[in-house]
Give the backbone structure.
Amino acid sequence: MKGLSLGELNIRIPIIQGGMGVGISLSKLAAAVANEGGVGVISCAGLGLIYKDKAKDYLQANIDGLKNEIRKAREATKGVIGINIMSALTNFEDMVRTTIAEKADIIFAGAGLPLNLPSFLKPDSVTKLVPIVSSGKAARLLCTKWKNSFDYLPDAFVVEGPKAGGHLGFKREQIEDVNYSLNQIVPDVVKAVREFELKYDKEIPVIAAGGLYDGIDIYEIMKKGAKGVQLGSRFVTTEECDASDIFKQQYIDSGENQLEIIQSPVGMPGRAFGNAFIDKVKKGLKVPKKCPFKCIKTCDISKSPYCIVTALYNAAKGNMKNGYAFAGSNAFRATRISTVKEVFTELLADFKKKAEEVLK
């Protein structure tokens, strides 16, 4: 498995840990992944809830929390640290500015097209910019927009398929459509990006994400043109994951038949483990009285059956009666709690075994 380069930033093992909020992937998990040679990713979603006692204002608590998590990660690792920032956040700009000022290595920006992301860079900025897309069309649009407006091209792309956990950038009818599978959209993005690589003599690696779980998955998607992979669910059931033990145990105890596609209050479908909370939502028993956070641009409190940031925070803390666990399509395969080091060892061993079988 070859390393991955984003300009002068070298990643020894091309495995990126997906950003998982609220409170699932913070500095502890990110530092552990970075120490193994991959990219550890802190999710900034909902940090204002986690750090609510540090500031009276929710949005300010987000900023303070992000600074603190980046600094804690830096104290624990010399490896590569990224920040996942949803474009749909109402304080997206604050999160981007904070990340760049703190000199985090990479910004992964999804949940919408970050059309103006390069505008936040300063002459001395070191942070790489990696948009998350679900099609070659979106990749082409971003490359064109960034180059024309900012003379900047993405340092890489994450291509997230419909088997991912959490919010999905697909319509419901596309989720099970093979034409939108990761095996189809990765080559589509690779082809779109190749035009700009050749024209401007810059390598733009494509990183595949969504439902990948083991080393065989990694080998097969790399054969489709991916230079790296992003895994989220696989790292939930690790000792270093920042979520509660109860949250992790849900992955171990749940079967494939418990995974379902839900409609999120933010207006997107998402994949999660079904539970009593979700059942109550389906029955119309969940209605928020107010929105104290205004954290997502697309969330309309007058139509939302519940506050998603609160539900995800509750779940991360182990309060599953008032929340639920997002999960990728293969999350049910978890059988035990392991360490991040053990996960990397297994992924690399399976990848090597598959590669050797193919060569025989």
Notes: The chain has a mean pLDDT of 92. The chain is about 35% helix and 15% strand.
